[in-house]
Amino acid sequence: MTRIRLGMVGGGNDAFIGGVHRIASRIDGHFDLVAGALSSTPEKARASAETLGLDPSRSYGSFEEMAEAEAAREDGIEAVSIVTPNHVHFPAAQAFLSRGIHVICDKPLTATFEDAEAMEKAVAESQALFILTHNYTGYPMIRQARQMVAEGALGKIRLVQAEYPQDWLTDAVETEGVKQAEWRTDPERSGAGGSIGDIGTHAYNLACFVSGLTGEELAADLQSFGAGRKLDDNAHILLRYEGGARGMLWCSQVAPGNENGLRLRIYGEKGGLEWAQEDPNYLWFTPHGEPTRRLTRNGPGAIEASTSVSRIPAGHPEGYLEGFATIYTEAAEAIRAVQGGQSREAVMGVLPGIGAGLDGMAFIRACVASAGDNAAWTKL
Amino acid sequence: MTRIRLGMVGGGNDAFIGGVHRIASRIDGHFDLVAGALSSTPEKARASAETLGLDPSRSYGSFEEMAEAEAAREDGIEAVSIVTPNHVHFPAAQAFLSRGIHVICDKPLTATFEDAEAMEKAVAESQALFILTHNYTGYPMIRQARQMVAEGALGKIRLVQAEYPQDWLTDAVETEGVKQAEWRTDPERSGAGGSIGDIGTHAYNLACFVSGLTGEELAADLQSFGAGRKLDDNAHILLRYEGGARGMLWCSQVAPGNENGLRLRIYGEKGGLEWAQEDPNYLWFTPHGEPTRRLTRNGPGAIEASTSVSRIPAGHPEGYLEGFATIYTEAAEAIRAVQGGQSREAVMGVLPGIGAGLDGMAFIRACVASAGDNAAWTKL
Amino acid sequence: MTRIRLGMVGGGNDAFIGGVHRIASRIDGHFDLVAGALSSTPEKARASAETLGLDPSRSYGSFEEMAEAEAAREDGIEAVSIVTPNHVHFPAAQAFLSRGIHVICDKPLTATFEDAEAMEKAVAESQALFILTHNYTGYPMIRQARQMVAEGALGKIRLVQAEYPQDWLTDAVETEGVKQAEWRTDPERSGAGGSIGDIGTHAYNLACFVSGLTGEELAADLQSFGAGRKLDDNAHILLRYEGGARGMLWCSQVAPGNENGLRLRIYGEKGGLEWAQEDPNYLWFTPHGEPTRRLTRNGPGAIEASTSVSRIPAGHPEGYLEGFATIYTEAAEAIRAVQGGQSREAVMGVLPGIGAGLDGMAFIRACVASAGDNAAWTKL
Amino acid sequence: MTRIRLGMVGGGNDAFIGGVHRIASRIDGHFDLVAGALSSTPEKARASAETLGLDPSRSYGSFEEMAEAEAAREDGIEAVSIVTPNHVHFPAAQAFLSRGIHVICDKPLTATFEDAEAMEKAVAESQALFILTHNYTGYPMIRQARQMVAEGALGKIRLVQAEYPQDWLTDAVETEGVKQAEWRTDPERSGAGGSIGDIGTHAYNLACFVSGLTGEELAADLQSFGAGRKLDDNAHILLRYEGGARGMLWCSQVAPGNENGLRLRIYGEKGGLEWAQEDPNYLWFTPHGEPTRRLTRNGPGAIEASTSVSRIPAGHPEGYLEGFATIYTEAAEAIRAVQGGQSREAVMGVLPGIGAGLDGMAFIRACVASAGDNAAWTKL
C-alpha cells in the first residue's frame, strides 16, 4: 500500500494544530508529508521545513506557488492539509481544489460567510475531495453513540445538551504575545465568531453528528469578558432542532478549571447517553429504568461503528490524536477510492465535508445575528 | 437543652418529603414531633400518627383544627412543618403564623403568585419565624463555596452554570398511579410551574445563594415532553444577573440516567468552583492558572463556614439528610433566639425565608411569561 | 411506637464516636438517650450530660454506678451504648449484660483476647442482646452486594481485595495532644492492634460480610512508620479464605490523601463488584463479558436487601450516619422482638454480634502473630 | 532529519502488540519500517508484509535470514523491533545485537532466566543499544511523578501500592482459540510467569521507576484460577524495598470489570501520589495536610519532565500509543546520539534497558520461588 503524497499550508514550528495534523497523518501510515508552505514568513517556512525533513525544493513561500509547482510535478502532492488561520482557508483551498488536489481543511470553514459560499462553489466545480477536520467525530465512542441513536437505542430524541468550556482566555493573553490567542480573537483572521467559531462549531457539529438532528433555530447570548476583546469568549445558546428536540449549547474560553471540556448529553424517550472528550474512551448509556452502563472503547457492548475505528484493546486509552487520525485514515480511503474511479459522493461516508462546514458557518452567523438582536430566535 | 415541640401538616405515610423532614428534625435532636395533621384523609392521618407514635389526641383532621387546638394548649407546638402539596402552603402557614407559631415550610413558597403575596403579608403581620426548606443550602460544601465567593476567591463572577436533571417523569407515570407525579404535574396543586417549580427553584436559589448575585432577567424555553402533561417537564433558561454575570439553568425531569443531578459551576475572573449534589462532600476549586483542588468536607482547606455545619470527619460522607438537618438545626437556634428575646431579623442568618420564597415565585412567573412569549427576555 | 430507653458509656463532649452513636440512635427515632456515664472524669461527665439535656440524676460517674442504678429503676434503660476506648468495652459490657440490659458496643470487641473470651462468656450467660457496631455493614449497597453474592451473581468467589487507607497518623500527632490519636496508639487502651484493630477489623469484617467467606489463614507485614509509635500504623496482609478464594487487605493510617478510603472489590467466576465507602451510594457490577453497571441506592436494579435499609430516593445521597443508623434501627427491632418473647438467636438477622467481634479479635491476633514471625502464614 | 530504518521480528497481521509498535514508531516520525520477519509461518509473513507495504525482497522467512541480509545491505536496517512471544526474544535479539543493529525488544526480557543472562552477555558484547519497551514509563504523568518523587515532594517514601488487574482470562479462553491467550498461558513460550510476567513485571517496573526504590525481597502467593491453566493468572505479593519502604503488588487476569487497570499509589512522609493507566492524563497529588490537587498533562503544575514528552495541550487526551511512542522517540534520539559518536551509556536517559529487563526477570523468579515455598520471603 503506497502512501498518499501530502502537502501542508500553514503549520509552521510555533503552530499547535499543524503538529496535530502531521501526527494524525502518520499514525495509520497512509500519508507522506512531502511539501509545504508552512508559514507566511519565508524564513520561518524554511526553518519549519528543515525541522520536518522536507526536501528544500518543496518548501514553498506561498500556497499559490506550491499549488502551481506541485500540480506540475509528476510526483506532486495528491492532497493538501490547510491548517492556517481561518481567513486563509478559502483562498488556499481554492488554489488546490481548482487543480484537482484533494483538500483536508481545518475548521471553521472560512472567516466569512461570503468565503464559505465561494468555498462551496469551488468544491462544486472541482473533482477533488474536500474534508473538514471536525476531528471529534473521529472518536470511537462518538461513532458508537451516533450509531446507537440511529438504531433507536434512545427512542425519539428530546434533548441535546452540548457544552465546550475552556479557560485559556480567562485573562487577556492576546495582549501578552500568545500567538494562538492573537489570531483567534482577531475578527480579521477569525471572522465574526470567537468562541462560537473556534469551539462552538465543534460542539454544534458533534450534537448534530451524534443526534442525527438538524438545527432549526437558535437564541444566543454572547459575551466578551476579556478586557478589550473584540470577539465573544463565552456563548449561551438555546437550540430548537427539527422534529421537536430542544437543546442548550454553552461554549466558553473563560471558565477556570476547564481545559477542553467538550461534553455531549443526549436524551430520548427510551434512554440517555453521555460522553466527555477528556475521558473519551467511556460512553455512559442508560436505558430508561435500568442501571447506567459504562461502555468502553473495544470493551463489552462495543459495536462495529466504534471497533472499526479503534486500534488497541479496551483499557488501553486512545485519545485526541487517534480520533484525529481516524479522519485522516478515512480521508486516505476516500482519496484512494476516488483515484480508483468511484464517484466523490460515494466515498465520503461519515467524513465531515463542505456540508458540515456550511452548517458551522450558518451556526456562527445565526449566533451573531441573534446576539445582535438581544438573543432573538434566529433561523439556522 | 429542651427540645422544641413540633407539629407537622402533611407528610402522611405515603409521602416522601414528610419522612425527610422528620428525620431532618431528629438528627441533631432539637425537635420533638408531638402533633400532626398528617393527611387530608382522616383515616390516613390517624394511621400515620399511630405509626409515628403521636398521642392520638394530637392527631388532627385538618391544619385549622390543629392550629387552633395547639395554640390553646400550654404545651402546644412551638413550630410546625408544612410538607403538603404547594397549594396548601399558604392557608396552612397562615393558620399558624397568625397564632405566633413558627413555620418551616417546604418549597416552592406557594402554588400561585397571589398566594405568595398573601404569604408575604402573613409573615409580615406575624411575630413568628418563617423558614423555607431550600435544603440544598444546608450542604457544608455549599456553605464553603458561598463563603469563598464572598471572600473573593473567584474574583468578580462572570458565569453561573446551574443544572438539575432528573429522569423520573420520562414516562407519563402520573397516569399510572404514582402519587408524587400526580400532584406535581397538576396545575391545581403545583401551580404554574412543573419542573421549574419543583426543581428549577432549587437550582436558581442555589445559584443565587452561592454566587451572591441577584437575577435580573431571563429567557426561558419550556417543554412538556410527557404525553398529555400539562406542566413543563424540561426548561432551558438563559439568565442575566446584576453586575454583568451571565448564566444558564437547565432543569429536567425527562433525562434518563439522571437521578437528582443538581450541579452548580461558578466562574470568575480569578477562578472557578464546581459542585454536584450527588457527590456533595467534594468541592472542586481552581484558582486560575493553578491545578484544580478537591476540597472535602472537614478536610484540609475546609473553612468555618463548612466545618460549623459538618458533623463527622472528612471521608465519612454526610448526605442529603444531614444538609436538610442543618436547616432544621439553624431553625431551632433561630427559634430559641427569638424565644430568648432577639428580633426576628437578627436570627435568620443564612436561613432561607420569605425573601427566598418570593424570589423563587418570581423565577417561576418569569419563566412562564417568557416561555409564553417565545422565550423573550423577562424581568425577574 | 414507644422509644427504647438508652444509656451511654463514654462519648463525652470531646469524643468523636459518641456523637456518631447519638445521631445514629436518633435518625429513625427508635431510641431516647436518658442516662449516661459519659466520661471517666466526673466533671466532664456532668458537662457532657448537661449539653445533651440528660436529667442530672441520671448522669453517672461510672458505668458500674449507672448499671446498678438503672437496673433498679422501673423506667431504667433498656439498652446501653458503649463507646469508650477498647479496654473498657468488656468490663462495661459485663456490667450491663449481667443485669439483662442490651448492649450496643463499639468495635473492636475488646483490647485483649482474654477480654474477648470473657466477653463471649458474659454474652452467653446473659439473656440480653449484644450488638457490635460494624457500622459499614449497614450501608445499603453493602447489603445489596452481600445479597448479590449470596444469590450467585458473581459465581464462585475467587478474589477479595479489601483496603482501608487513611492519612491522619502520617505525622506523630499522638505526641501533639490529639486525643483520638493518643488512645488509639496506646497498647494499654487499644490492645495489640493499631491500624489493624481500628480499621483493619472493619475491612476484614466487610470482606467476610459481603463475600460470605470465612478467613482461613493470613500472612501479615505490619509497620509503625510514625516516630516512636508503639502500634502498627500500616498493614499489608495476604489472606486465604475457605474454599480457595484468595485476598489482600491493606490498611493504613499514613497514606496522605486518603481520608477514610475503605474499599471492597470482589471477583468471582462470573462477575465482579466494586464499592467504595466515600461514594457509598454506588455499587459497580460487572457480569463477566458485559458492560459495567453503576447500581445506585434505590435506583434501577436495587433489590430488597438495599431498598429496605434505604430512607430516601436515588440521587439523594445517604451517608455514613444513615448506615450507622441502620445498625441502631435493626438493634431496636431486635430488642423489641426479644422483649416480645422471641429468642435471642432468632432476632439478630445480619446484625454483627459477638461472633463478628471474636472474628475481629482473631484477625488482630493472627496479624500480630504473623508479623512477629516475619509474615508467616497464621491460622485465623 | 532522516528517518531511522527499522525492521520488525514478529508482529504479523493477527498479533496485537506488533501493530502497537508500528504505530508508536510512526507517531513522531523518527522511523521507517523497511524490513520484517513478521511471522514464523512464511505465508503469513508474506501476507503481513504486503499489508504493510514492505518491499517483498525485504520480507524474510526468519529473523536469522533477516539479520544476515540486512546487515549486508548498505541501506540495511539500523534498528529492529522484536515483538514475538517471550521465548524468541533472546535468539532474535542476539542475531541483531551481534551485528551491531540496535534492538527494541518487548517485555518481559526473555522466557527463562538462563536466556536473560545470555541476553545480558549479548548486550555487553555488542556496541548496539538494547531498549526494552516498558512503555508505561513513557506516560507524561509517570515522568512527572518520578521527577516529583526524586525532588522530594513526598519526602521519604513509606508505601508503594501497585496493582494491575485485567479480566480477559476469567474464562479459559486459551482453550477456545484465542491466540493471545494461548502463548501467554504456555510455559514453553511465556516462561515461568503467567500474569506476573505479562503484567506483573510492568507494575513492578513502574513502582521502581517512579519511586526510585529497589526491591529487596518479596512474598508471593500465586494462583491459577482458569481451568487447566498451567501458569499463574493472579498474584498477591508483599514487597520490601531498600530503605524501609513497604508495598503490595496485585496483578490479575481474572478480575471481571478490569480491562487494563494498572494503578500506582505512592506515599511518603510528606505527601502522596496516585495515578491510573486508564485515565493517564491525571496525576493526583496530596501534600500532607493540604487539599488533593489534580495535576493534568501539560496543565498548571506540569513540569518539564512531563511537558517534554507531551505533544498536545492539556485537555486533549494523550493515551497508550503516545506513551509508547515516547519510548520509540527517545530510542531514536539515543540511536542518533550513538551514531553521532556518543557512548552507549551516555544516551539511555530514563529509557528502560537490559537492567530493567533483568530486574523484571528477577521479579518473576522470586515470585515463582516464593510461591513454591508457601509465600516465604525471597530475595530479589
Automatic annotation (TrEMBL), chains A, B, C, D:
Example of a GO MF term: nucleotide binding
Residues of the GFO/IDH/MocA-like oxidoreductase domain: 142-274
Domain Gfo/Idh/MocA-like oxidoreductase N-terminal: 4-132
InterPro entries in the cross-refs: Gfo/Idh/MocA-like_OxRdtase_N (IPR000683), Gfo/Idh/MocA_oxidoreduct (IPR051317), GFO_IDH_MocA-like_dom (IPR055170), NAD(P)-bd_dom_sf (IPR036291)
Alphabetized PANTHER family for the sequence: CONSERVED EXPRESSED OXIDOREDUCTASE (EUROFUNG), OXIDOREDUCTASE
Name this protein carries in UniProt: Gfo/Idh/MocA family oxidoreductase
UniProt source species: Pseudooceanicola antarcticus
